[in-house]
Amino acid sequence: MYLFVRDGREYLLSPGETLESDLGILEVPEDVAPGDVVETHLGEAFEVRDLRGPDLFAHFERTGAPMMPRDIGLIMGHTGACEGDRVLDAGTGTGVLSAYLARAGAEVVTYERNPEFADVARSNMDLAGIGDRVEVRVGDVTDDLDADPDDLGTFDLLTLDTEDAPRVIRRAHELVVPGGYVTAYVPFVEGTRAAVEAAREAGLEDIETYETLQREMDFDSRGSRPSTAGVGHTGYLLFARA
Prior knowledge:
Helix content is 30%, strand content 35%. By secondary structure, the protein is α/β, with parallel strands linked by helices. The strands form 4 sheets. Strands 9-8-7-10-11-15-12 form a 7-stranded mixed beta sheet, with helices on both faces. A hairpin with a 2-residue loop joins strand 3 (18-21) and strand 4. The protein starts with a strand and ends with a strand. Residues 87-180 form the Methyltransferase domain.
């Protein structure tokens, strides 16, 4: 599946599909490739692009508020997530974080409590082309850990976007290899403090917490300044090492 773009419009289409719009009928060739330009029967041209991470964020089916790319970037930068890593993720949601990690080459096992949300996440992984590298499980990771610890194994990275993050963090040494990373995305200060205290109780090292803020800049004839629109704060990020 590719992204077909024209003047701010974006459509996800596969080879052989047909799109009907006010710009005309677009018949996608079977041999279409990124970089091609395909025209409708009215001569309106669309540029063909491969899907990148931000495109997935924009076009995934959503089951809630997904993690923002800027937060995902901090997670990948601080933990050095890379090809060959095993990642355990709790709180799949839309699956944006899992998709980014898998596209970087990691193998991801992600837990989602809501079966319907899990089905949506699986479809999103297929859309991203990494369904074979992301296993979406329904349930609670600590329940599976209690039932059969050997079934999960150990991971290079544990990522948490769930209300019970402190409970999982307390068991990090059962889940993460020595020197591996634990990270939690938490929307509120109270939950962040609880996660930090859990990391200390678990004996994790190099505990750091950040608030993620971002301001877009506006440049016009009057001058330059941060934009007054948009979301500045998204959440808090905890990082620690096993």
